[in-house]
Amino acid sequence: MSNPASPPAVDVLDERPGLTFPPGFLWGAATAAYQIEGAAAEDGRAPSIWDTFSHTEGRVVAGHTGDVACDHYHRLGEDVALMAELGLKSYRFSVSWSRVQPAGSGAVNPQGLDFYRRLVDELLANGIEPWLTLYHWDLPQPLEDAGGWPARDTAARFADYTTVMADALGDRVRYWTTLNEPWCSAFLGYGSGVHAPGRTNGADAVRAGHHLMLGHGLAVQALRAARPTAEVGVTVNLYPVDPASDTPADRDAARRIDGLANRFFLDPLLRGSYPEDLVADLSTVTDFDHVRDGDLATISTPLDLVGVNYYSRHVVAAPVEGVPADPAPSCWPGSEDVRFVSRGVPVTDMGWEIDAPGLTETLRRVHGYTELPLYVTENGSAFVDSVVDGQVDDVDRLAYFDAHLRAAHEAIDAGVPLRGYFAWSLMDNFEWAWGYTKRFGMIHVDYDSQVRTPKSSAKWYASVIRRNGLAAQ
Ligand code: FCB
């Protein structure tokens, strides 16, 4: 019998059904090496491009660096225990190439490998499936000094490093992703220069994008050779790109940005070709003479899964006549004059528009390319959190997750073989050029004391994992 004095269980103004995900759905959380590990100069680790970049004045907000970060290198046991409390089925982490192969090639650092062996063993002991990303943006500095990703040789070095990791951990790690978000590595790292290594040359960005994908293809082959049973994929960050209006000029602006943001990667990786319109758009930037016979076949080496990182949507409009393009270095080479339009919808602390339906749209689009199983390998939001009486009630983040999980479920209903979801992020961490000023974690980190405090979203996510779905609201 219901108690007439108690509030209704369901708010009729916001009545959303409970949802159950398919059996075996892989619920996880993600992090990346440079964002959490710290111990930057310990046990034989050498600098990566992110060490150099963050130590260069003016590159990262407030001069923050990843030297200490969340000190995860020394708190591995405590952190895995927190994951176990959350009930995570899987944990997606990345390996610091500079820890394992400090020069980026040649000698392997056994202490570096040991750290990842301990991490993987600890995860397995807690029933958590390790999901290993080989490259989350932290190229060993000596490889950048030798030309970085715009240089073809870097792809071969990446394949060698992949073999080292497959030999060391392939018996215990089933899920592997080669690259995380090659768009960011290429276009933020070498185009706009807001990420490491901070170079600003459109042609270099395009070359970097190609060699990242070539490295990916070679790495897939290296993994297959070393570990035939591994589940291998790549993670791309995708955005729906909408025209601000239905005019041909705005639609053309959307086509161009969609080419650079999405099809630059999806088409070579999943179809073995660059889109013709994209090559034409980039003709003022590069003649693609870096692409050699056989590259696209390597790049499109068959995969076992595709990882999708989703955060927001882009809305764009045609250049305004008479208004010159912003001369600042750009992550949209050849399309610098396209305008990004804000719709005035709610945004996160990154200023990114919140657009859950865009996740459904993105997953359906990728499914249009491939029948492969898909995973959301990152999705999440930064908000300003406050600790009150030792608690962080991050309702905005929780609502973001809830809305995006509903959107993910809608994709499943529409026939998308979505097999898992990784929240970004397990804990607050070094948010690249924003340093520690943006918090994405489900677990709050006090950077002075390194105390971890699960936020409301963490407790809520634990209940989602327990019931394999969402409660009615
Ligand atoms: C993604 C990155 C991840 C994190 C989130 C917020 O682009 O892969 O490391 O910074 O954005």
From TrEMBL:
E.C. no: 3.2.1.21
InterPro entries hit by this protein: GH (IPR017853), GH_1_N_CS (IPR033132), Glyco_hydro_1 (IPR001360), Glyco_hydro_1_beta-glucosidase (IPR017736)
GO MF, any single term: beta-glucosidase activity
Superkingdom per UniProt: Bacteria
Enzymatic reactions: Hydrolysis of terminal, non-reducing beta-D-glucosyl residues with release of beta-D-glucose
Similarity field: Belongs to the glycosyl hydrolase 1 family.
Stored PANTHER family: GLYCOSYL HYDROLASE (PTHR10353), LP05116P (PTHR10353:SF36)
Protein name as catalogued: Beta-glucosidase
